[in-house]
Design a protein that fits this description.
- By secondary structure, the chain is of the alpha+beta class.
- It folds into two domains: 230 residues, Rossmann fold, CATH 3.40.50.300; 114 residues, OB fold (Dihydrolipoamide Acetyltransferase, E2P) (Beta Barrel), CATH 2.40.50.140.
- The chain has eight helices and 22 strands.
- The strands form five sheets. Strands 7-8-9-3-10-11 form a six-stranded mixed sheet, with helices on both faces. A five-stranded antiparallel sheet has the order 2-1-4-5-6, with helices on one face.
- A hairpin with a 4-residue loop joins strand 1 and strand 2.
- The protein is globular.
């Protein structure tokens, strides 16, 4: 029994604007119904990649296959309107002269716009039933994005592209809308690519995350793997807060750092040496009093320091401790930190660190 071909396949894709390539040799496959987030900083090439998939840019080389059809390649080119791809742009881009029904219906073939019940069905799906005659300027930001989504879904595309669609919404509304959109797309089994610079957004709703940097995809993995097992130091730095410590000495599966002897994950043992960094997430550190160790840790796995700053976020807090050798480390704890600025504390390492070659050396 043969498995179904991927809905989207990119092979050695190179895309530019006439000068140096912006997307460099990207290969990626996305299965039917999968939700993949393309995550990267500004200038990483993620939006250029999305524009090439949509058909707005012609690749320099490589190929793009959608639902088994080559839409871009050395001898193939299918224009955007014939790729059967839906696109939700960053600002929604609704037509101000059309009402909600007109905007949604615009995504349908002309002959179906007035006779189809699809528009009503879609507006009910996105929670906007009864607003058919409303104008875009009468809608909230979240409602406008739902209309843009309904318009993109109207022709039942093989692939949906979301170009940072939640970035213009305020924080609370952003979480609400993206959660609703994700649930709807999962229910419809719509194959989706989300382009975003927001790490929390990518990690919280994607099935897999493709991290881009300088035009290349550095890692494609499950969200938890991208966070807990980043393939490069640049990914570790970009996705979440990070504590970086130079390695002073190593033995077996541990490395000597400012926090004492730190266990290192087995897969990273070849990387530890005199020119290496070990990295820990702030939640892998804990604070205890100078007289208490806890967690079964020995004094060799702790370091003494002074609390320098506390950032309280309600659900957790991030405490900066200045170690005795001058190294600052960040410690994340649930709720309040339980300490005050100026307190003397010990920092305890829990779990294993990742190790990477030091890029400065």
């Amino acid at each position: 029994m043969t498995s179904a071909p991927p809905t989207l396949s990119l092979q050695d894709l190179v895309v530019g604007y006439g000068g140096e390539p912006v997307v460099r040799g990207v290969s990626l496959e996305v299965s039917h119904g999968e939700f993949v987030a393309v995550l990267g900083a500004s200038g990483s090439g993620k939006t250029t990649l999305l524009r090439a998939i949509a058909g707005y840019l012609r690749p320099t080389s490589g190929s793009i296959t959608v639902a088994g059809d080559v839409v871009a390649g050395p001898r193939s080119w299918v224009p955007p309107e014939k790729r059967h791809i839906g696109v939700v742009p960053q600002e929604g881009a609704l037509f101000p002269q059309l009402d909600v029904a007109g905007n949604v219906g615009f995504g349908l073939p002309r002959r179906e716009r007035r006779t189809s019940t699809r528009v009503s069905q879609l507006l009910e799906m996105v929670g906007l039933a009864g607003l058919e005659r409303a104008r875009p300027d009468e809608l909230s930001g979240g409602q406008q994005q739902r209309v843009a989504l309904a318009r993109a879904l109207a022709p039942e595309p093989d692939l949906l592209l979301l170009d940072e669609p939640f970035s213009s919404l305020d924080a609370a509304l952003r979480v609400e809308v993206r959660t609703e959109v994700h649930a709807l797309l999962r229910e419809l089994e719509t194959t989706t690519i989300l382009v975003t610079h927001d790490q929390e957004e990518a990690l919280s709703i994607a099935d897999r995350v493709a991290v881009m940097s300088f035009g290349r995809v550095e890692q494609v993995d499950a969200p938890w793997r991208v966070y807990e097992a980043p393939s490069t130091l640049s990914i570790a730095r970009f996705v979440g807060d990070l504590v970086e410590l130079p390695v002073r000495q190593s033995k077996e599966d541990t490395a000597l750092t400012s926090l004492g002897w730190v266990p290192v994950t087995t897969e990273d043992l070849p990387a530890i040496g005199s020119h290496a960094l070990v990295t820990l997430r702030p939640e892998q550190l804990a604070l205890v009093s100078d007289r208490t160790l806890g967690n079964g840790s020995s004094a060799e796995q702790t370091a003494l320091g002074t609390v320098e700053a506390i950032r309280y976020h309600g659900h957790d807090s991030l405490t900066t401790v200045r170690l005795e050798d001058g190294t600052p480390v960040a410690v994340r704890a649930a709720g309040g930190a339980g300490v005050a600025v100026g307190d003397r504390v010990r920092v305890v390492v829990t779990g294993a660190a990742r190790a990477f070659p030091d890029p400065v050396v």
